[in-house]
Amino acid sequence: MQSVQILFANLMAIYRRELQSYFASPFAYVIAGVFWLLSGFFFVAILLGPEGLIAQANFRDQLGMTNPPIDVAAQFVSFFLGTLSSLALFILPVLSMGLYAEERKRGTLELLATSPLTNWIVALGKLLGALTFFVTLLLPMLIYQTIALSAANPPAPFTGLLLGHLGLILLAAAVLSLGMFVSSLTDSTILAAILTFALVLFLWVVDLVGNSLVGPVGAGLKHISLIRNYTNFAQGVFDSSSLVVFLSYVMLGLFLTAQSIEAFRFQRS
């Protein structure tokens, strides 16, 4: 029991350290500002723009086109969550690029690797810190969506909204975990961000490759696609297989990161 308490205390120490590093970094605030600016722009454009959903619904009403009716709330949730996921594709590699690369650059990775803390605890604490910062970026967007959908008629799909954001958080955890592993391989944050973006882009579009193939290979590629599994949540569908895929990516990233740091520790011993 005492050992569990010690592990939890160590995890919280790493978590607080990582989270404080984000909130103390001017660059992190630049990332937040860009994310909020772009998200806000697309929020207004999708909902209130001249080609937005409300304008389209009003135009159909003026023409008497009421069949089939447009569920503005449901379409807005689907479109906007898709937009947020696309923005996350660019934001998340930037958030993960310094998780270990900065440690290498400052020369503190050796101290971290030879400390009594286990590699898994350190990696998990860093991942939770980065994920918490990303969740704070989503909170204003969630508030805006809730306010906008509260006036929807027919009633807004709040269950779909919550499932969509759950999917977005799972997607972020998977990308950050893989990005953390990439960051552990180099002391260049720029290179880590580029390699992570390339890896995530491949996992994002692998669904297209899977669609062009038949048999178990095509089915397997579609099963590991990030966008395919995220779309299930964005459409308000809870798919346990998609949950397993995202958690598998998280565990894979943690495992590879722990092995990478163990290899680094072996080289320094």
Shape type: globular
- Number of H- or I-type helical stretches: 12
> Any idea how many domains?
1
Largest sheet: number of strands, sense, barrel closure: none
* Secondary structure: helix percent: over 70%
What share of residues are in beta strands? under 5%
Summed up, what is this model?
The protein has 269 residues and is mainly alpha-helical. It is built from 12 helices and no strands.
Descriptive overview:
The protein has 269 residues and is mainly alpha-helical. It has one domain (2-30, 71-268). It is 82% helix and 0% strand. The chain contains twelve helices and no strands. It has helices at residues 2-23, 26-48, 53-62, 72-96, 98-106, 109-113, 119-149, 158-183, 189-211, 215-223, 226-234, 240-268. α1 packs across α7, α4 (72-96) packs antiparallel against α7 and α7 (119-149) runs antiparallel to α12. The chain is globular and about 65 Å long. The protein starts with a helix and ends with a helix. The mean pLDDT is 82.
Question: What tags apply to this protein structure?
Answer:
269 residues
Break the fold down into its secondary structure elements and pairings.
Layout: H1 2-23, H2 26-48, H3 53-62, H4 72-96, H5 98-106, H6 109-113, H7 119-149, H8 158-183, H9 189-211, H10 215-223, H11 226-234, H12 240-268
